[in-house]
Design goal:
Number of helices: 14
Number of domains: 2
CATH class of the largest domain: Alpha Beta
CATH architecture of the largest domain: 3-Layer(aba) Sandwich
Strand order of the largest sheet: 2-8-7-6-5-3-4
CATH superfamily of the largest domain: Type I PLP-dependent aspartate aminotransferase-like (Major domain)
Shape: globular
Helix content: 40-55%
Strand content: 15-25%
Number of strands: 15
Structural class: alpha/beta
CATH topology of the largest domain: Aspartate Aminotransferase, domain 2
Distance between the termini: 40 Å
Bound molecules: ligand C6P
Largest sheet: 7 strands, mixed
Length: 404
């Protein structure tokens, strides 16, 4: 019998909502909420500080969580895992620490036009401060990056490439293998934004051969406020700290500071112990569900939604016409109706979707739309959810005063 995953999620179990905004943040299963509570009930002390038994327990839980994350993304060592608040902070850490100390006037930073602002603005900041230049890697209206686009973006001046694995607007995957190969040829480091990929597909930093990788816990069912930066040990070791203060030093005298070893050099101040422990619980839950099932369910629902929307002549689906190229994300527009109105009407029918520019304005300019309505699915969504969305979408133009 098919397992009803909604029963694992208190909000979905106790609420009639059709939640189709998992690309913004996923729902949390009981096991994650319980893990966060467990930390405070059983292990609460300031990790990495107290030398008493409870303090050591708190540190152990925190470091166990780091091991769990390292295994999850196949890092060679847990020392390569830095806990942050979210993907945005992880990307800023690389920009401020690596970017500002390594890039110089005339160097080129390649950023894809598909990027979320969190993987564009840090590099624009680095360019402004160092005199480096940001070059956009173009895509077509479906989000595909061609070999011609790739060749045009890279040169011998390319020193850093910042690219997402999956677009948060179109759901399309970028050709990461080709991007890494070209970056290696130019001697550039690769920063991969895995915020929209880790919830949906196996991510192996060693196979991908990327130098840095960022993701947020909350998109893969962990609490808000815990994120991850992976960095190659050789690079992290010689980078200056991002934030300074408590717990990131070995010794401080009046005239000298010796920073702590990895990963603590990059974790200044009291850490999010409960968040890290609950992130490990989210990863274990995700692994128990399995990417195979996640992808199967997402494809089933994406196909159902796209087939239904395609029948409506006034609906334009953005991105590829192939449901396999959407990673559970479908952005669309309805002729004559602003996406904010679409989302308000859907909300009145108990359906939660996101509307707007999705923090990716240059991409919206590239595909020539001001904003879209975005339905994003996860394995806990059902065919009934999609049926309700389609039924509601069919009424929107009428409710806005159009004839049909
Ligand atoms: N995208 C969305 O609705 P934070 O906010 O730091 O957890 O994640 C930032 C981020 C970075 N990269 C990509 C590809 C993302 O999609 C996001 C977050 C959400 O699409 C909120 S804007």
């Amino acid at each position: 019998m098919k397992r009803d995953y909604r029963q694992d999620f208190p909000l979905l179990r106790e609420n009639p909502i059709v939640y189709l905004d998992s690309a913004a943040t996923a729902q949390r299963p009981d096991v994650v909420i319980e893990a966060e509570m467990e930390f405070y009930k059983k292990y609460n002390a300031n990790p990495l500080r107290g030398l008493y038994s409870l303090g050591i327990e708190a540190t152990d839980r925190y470091e166990e969580a780091r091991e769990c994350v390292a295994n999850f993304i196949h890092a060679a060592s847990a020392k390569e895992i830095i806990f942050t608040r979210n993907a945005t902070e992880s990307l800023n850490l690389v920009a401020y620490s690596y970017g500002l100390s390594h890039l110089r006037e005339g160097d080129e930073i390649v950023v894809s036009i598909l990027e979320h602002h969190s993987n564009q603005l840090p590099w624009r900041m680095v360019a402004e401060k160092t005199g480096a230049v940001v070059k956009y890697l173009e895509c077509d209206r479906q989000g595909h990056i061609s070999d011609v686009d790739l060749q045009a973006a890279f040169s011998e001046k390319t020193k850093l490439v910042a690219v997402t694995q999956v677009s948060n607007v179109l759901g399309i995957k970028t050709p990461i293998d080709k991007i890494v190969a070209l970056a290696k040829k130019s001697g550039a480091v690769v920063v991969l934004d895995a915020a929209q990929s880790t919830p949906h597909m196996e991510v192996d930093v060693q196979k991908l051969d990327v130098d840095f990788l960022a993701f947020s816990g909350h998109k893969l069912m962990a609490p808000m406020g815990i994120g991850v930066l992976y960095g190659r040990k050789e690079l992290l070791s010689e980078m200056p700290p991002f934030l300074t203060g408590g717990e990131m030093i070995q010794t401080v005298t009046r005239d000298k500071v010796v920073y702590a070893e990895l990963p603590h050099k990059f974790e200044a101040g009291t850490v999010n112990g409960a968040g890290a422990w609950a992130l490990a619980a989210a990863i274990r839950y995700l692994q128990e569900v399995g990417y195979e099932h996640i992808q199967k369910q997402e494809l089933l629902l994406t196909t159902q939604l796209m087939e239904g929307l395609t029948k409506l002549p006034y609906v334009q689906i953005q991105g590829s016409p192939d449901p396999k190229e959407h990673c559970g994300i479908v952005s669309f527009t309805i002729d004559g109706v602003h996406p904010h109105d679409v989302s308000s009407i859907l909300d009145a029918d108990g359906i939660a979707v996101r509307a707007g520019h999705h923090c990716a304005q240059p991409l919206m300019q590239q595909i020539d739309v001001m904003s879209t309505t975005r339905a994003s699915m996860y394995f806990y969504n059902t065919e009934e959810d999609i049926e309700k969305l389609l039924t509601s979408v069919q009424t929107i133009r009428r409710r806005m005063g159009y004839g049909e």
